[in-house]
Amino acid sequence: MVLVVIVAVQLMFGIDATVMTVALPSAGRDLGLDLVGQSWVQSGYVVAFGALLLLGARLGDVLGRRRMVLVGVALFTVTSLIGGLAGNGPMLIALRAAQGAGAALAGPNTMALLMLAFAAGPARNRALAIFSAVLGAGGTLGLVLGGLLTFGAGWRVVLLINVPVGLVLLLLAPRFLPETGRTSGALDLPGIAASGIGIAALVLGLTNAVEYGWATVPAITPLAVAVVLLATFVRVERRAANPVLPMTLLLDRSRGTGYLAAALASGAMFGTFFLLTQFLQVVLRLGPLPAGLALVPLMGSMLATIRLVPRLLARVRASAVVVAGATVFLSGAAWLTTLDARSAYLTGILGPLVLLGVGGGLTFVPLSSSILGAVPQALAGSASGALQAVQYSGTAFGVAVLVALVSAARRGGADFGAAIGDAVVGALVLEALVLALAAGRLRWDRPVAPTKLLDNARLSPTAGPRPADSDPVADAPSTTADS
């Protein structure tokens, strides 16, 4: 039930990241939103989520992770209710941003609770596999669900459906989720401000680059602000007594390269995913709902592969699995470079979708396991928040780069289908970098020895919080990797 509640919370957030995509034209007509305004309904959620992830993680350290999950879900539920009743466009945009804030407060703490509940080794790998499967499936489920609800009951139901789900989770979470010990120390306000505004500016700049182009003021200005603030953030964190993101997490060669690989893999996967949704709707002229259903083979193959990953991680190095996954992904992306206006779904897209799903399944779980596998409890929230932050930033970067390549190909005279095929080369480059990083990590990566699930008494919410200095990794039997 710990895993069920954690996965349900994350699935609600994952679906909501894309569920409004299909509903935006209807919402825009009702509320008088032009195309730019509609894009902000989506961007507001993403920017707020990315900006507040590290804050959510740090508040979980200070106030308790279960408490922050409850606060985040409550905020998300209330703003979903009010957003479903919104009477004008600016109100809907603001409430979507508030939804993103709620997801950011809860998101990193759900993953941190997962790390607490399951010991390093096969138990945690299985839990991470299920968690990653839900993250991967959320986007496609959001598109399908958004289409069903919008065409069946209207765009407002897309938001209102979160209310009963949120209420059920608010009842289950206090009963089943364990609470964690709290750390002392003041909040690192300069670090929180620099990271929050910096990540928000980065995501905003990348989002604007998709809409307006890279060489435009709406893209260049926030990107320049992001560079300055994120550089300032690194300097602040090196000196902070209670850093929101300890630099030891990033400077460790295994975790640092893992974070970079996770960002690149997210960019390659979701950038390609975005282009394929465009190809299905613009070139093949499928409606939003059929287009969402057409992408199900990607998620199906990913889910099937993820079930096998824990067994692989018990026998071979995580980086070896990532190498295999990146290789499979590259073969699927290479196939997609042949797309043009004459390509059909069965011959030009279905096969690559399956390969992309298998490649993604073999990539994301091992990366998460290697990044979070031996993180002490005191750093679990920061490590989880940083992972989600780099993945969302990587996604925005991948989409922006691939859309820019489509625009360049169109200016060169290519039809829209061929331009998408040409742009997939960008995903090939990103994934090739993932392959290179994983191959380099093979020199020091080691298999994680099996360990047992933590004792149920230590997970029971009635047992009281664990001591702040307790560490589920340290409590477990030592492994070769720990040594």
Would you write up a description of this structure?
It is a single chain. The protein has three domains: 1-183, Up-down Bundle (Growth Hormone, Chain: A); 188-241; 245-446, Up-down Bundle (Growth Hormone, Chain: A), CATH 1.20.1250. The protein is 79% helix and 0% strand. It has helices at residues 2-31, 35-63, 65-84, 89-117, 122-153, 155-160, 162-176, 189-212, 217-239, 247-251, 253-283, 288-294, 296-306, 309-313, 318-336, 345-348, 350-372, 377-411, 416-441, 456-459, 472-475. The protein starts with a helix and ends in an 8-residue tail after the last helix.
Could you give a short description of this structure?
By secondary structure, the protein is mainly alpha-helical.
Low-confidence stretches: 448-483
Fraction in beta strands: under 5%
| Number of discrete domains | 3
Largest sheet: none
Estimated structural class: mainly alpha
What is the CATH homology-level superfamily of the largest domain? MFS general substrate transporter like domains
CATH topology of the largest domain: Growth Hormone, Chain: A
CATH class call of the largest domain: Mainly Alpha
CATH architecture identity of the largest domain: Up-down Bundle
